[in-house]
Amino acid sequence: MPELTGGEIVARTLNNYGVEYGAGIPGHGIWVLLDAFLQDGNDVELLQVFHEQSAVHLADGYYRATGKPMAAITSVGAGAANTVLGLATAYSDSVPVLTITGAPPIGMQGHGCLQELDRKADNGLARSFEPVTKRRWSIQTIEELPFVLHRAFSAMLTGRPGPVHIEVPMDIQAQAADVNLHDLERRLPTGRYFPDPSAIEDAAAVLRDAKRPVIVVGGGVINSGASEELRQVAEALQAPVVVTWSGKGAFPEDHSLFVGPIGQTGTIPGNAVPAAADVVLAVGCRFSDWSASSYSRGITFSMPPGKLVQIDIEPHEIGKNYPVEVGILADAKPALADLAAAVGTVSGGREDYLAEVASLKADWAQQESTRLDSDQTPFTSQRPLRDLRRVMDRDGIIVSGSGNTQGAVKQSFPVYEPRTHLTSAGFSAMGWATPAAIGAKLGRPDRQVVCILGDGDFLMTSQEIGVAAQHEIPVVFVVQNNSGYMSIRGGQRKIMDRFVLSEFTRKNEPYTVDMTAIGKAFGIETARIEDSDEMESTFERALASEGPSLIEVPTSRDAAGPWVPGWWDFPVPAYVEDERQEEYREKLLAEQHQ
Fold first, then answer.
1. pLDDT digits over 114-148, tens only?
2. Is 584 helix (H, G, I), strand (E, B) or coil?
3. How far apart are CA 290 and CA 295, in angstroms?
4. Do 70 and 98 contact (CB within 8 A), yes or no?
């Protein structure tokens, strides 16, 4: 075959491997590689973003909506460094993203060339990618590029998935060599990790004997495509189901066995049911402090005395935060299928338990209605969620930003199918939602996509609505404007009775940005909702539009977020000398993770 440049090797391989899109910014450190995508026969479409962080977030949202990887491609030095936050977000949530950046020419490394960090190591920036990727490679020869590329895809997509980073020096992008491009299908393992049959039998025995079982669902169920098997196990056991942030969508929220989300911003029944469970079946869930109420016994979980059956594809997670009665190392889909067969059907004995759960859910629905149905202005965070759910398709995709909006969506926006609730969970990165929603719509043009986020979150990457405008990608951006970082202010006031840096103010008055003016400046349709009577119709018009739109919703600073039924280990300063210190010490002493 003819010789190929390093750039051509990358472009052709991504094309051969079925990558449909790449996003990035063409700095000098990558423009030779990017030029190769213009060669005849290459079908990878490139989108320009306005910040390199957003290229990774866009690819992140694309994968979460489709289950297919996308590339983020950007320059050397500052351009490469800007991808680190996006990679950390994807890594925390086990999302495959292929990130390719430039690097100083090999012959220049160590000389302090433009955009090189060399005081501690030649090309020292490369080390910053280690903690935020599943694997990283710094290419040294053009001949190794095909080998590294198939290994990168294998690392991204197998086992517990995650992002990878490949650094291609500028000279290698331009050099040519006679190489063979590798067939990905012959380089990836086939099949899934099946569980040990004896572990399945042990788990089934524990679950059959349970009086108050509960199933905790994490993002691993969605990554595995195991929603149907999850439903089979839940129905066989007649066990209530609760979800983490990443697990939301794995189980239909209108199913009678669905209870709610868990953790600090879970729901009252979502925390009460697992806290009182005698057996917890956790699937693809890593028990973060946010989901487990910082492991304080009796708030979200009580293990022990409760018994834990844990299924995970990552051995590192099994038994990490709670001791297991049975630990099952396996892919969630075959593990749940085998468990459903082993459990059989549990007949009777759960009626009183399920009636108690139903009563908790009814009480919670009544509490929720006080904000969902409120017509106060500025609006509660929950009020637009009610009308948005009414007009969105059942399989529409909701993308939520971090903070109050994220918690409100978790609690009060029901979803019914996998990959229809997307949020930055483990890293909770502000600025993620706007580009991620564009990626989601890019990958699922057949689905409605609504991005709902606070003004503080939106302003971090608001410029990316220009990407939607340029390419006519019809995402609906709903900005809940409460003039500040109100989730932070709420925590500050609760712990310390005062706050700092969390309100947007000018001359001691609330300072607000005209969000509709931002939308108009980028050339997209805009609306501002002033009256609750116009909310539903405004959302309907936006969803029917063939282009992107931005809707500003004035939101109350003081009724702006979710309820907080759980707990988060936020240390109380020593100079706060009241009941808060006693409450903190009490919950701290009850933490079970040590």
1. 877 888 888 879 899 999 999 999 999 999 999 99
2. helix
3. 9
4. yes
Residue corresponding to tokens 């028990």: 287
Sort residue 258 into left (φ over 0), alpha (ψ -120 to 50) or beta: beta
Q: Does residue 565 form part of some domain?
A: no
Q: Looking at the structure, tell me whether residues 474 and 437 fall in a common domain.
A: yes
Q: How far is CA 432 from CA 214, 279, 461, 580, in A?
A: 32, 36, 8, 34
Domain count for the chain: 3
Is residue 43 one of the residues assigned to a domain?
A: yes
Domain carrying residue 463: 373-554
- DSSP helix/strand/coil, 329: strand
Helix 351-372 to helix 383-391 angle, to the nearest 10 degrees? Answer: 110
Please write the tens of the pLDDT for every residue from 206-265. Answer: 999 999 999 999 999 999 999 999 999 999 999 999 999 999 999 999 999 999 999 999
Compute the Cα dihedral for 64, 65, 66, 72 and give only its sign. Answer: negative
Whether residue 44 is found in the same domain as residue 176: yes
594 contacts 296 by C-beta, under 8 angstroms:
no
Decide: 298 and 238 in contact? Cβ < 8 Å.
Answer: no
Q: Is residue 335 part of a domain?
A: yes
The reply to whether 438 and 352 lie within a common domain is no
d(CA 131, CA 307): 33
* 337/400 same-domain check: no
Q: Which two tokens stand for residue 410?
A: 């978790």
Task: With both helix axes pointing from N to C terminus, report the angle between 84-92 and 52-66 in degrees, rounded to the nearest 10.
Answer: 20
Q: CATH number of the domain that 297 lies in? A: 3.40.50.1220
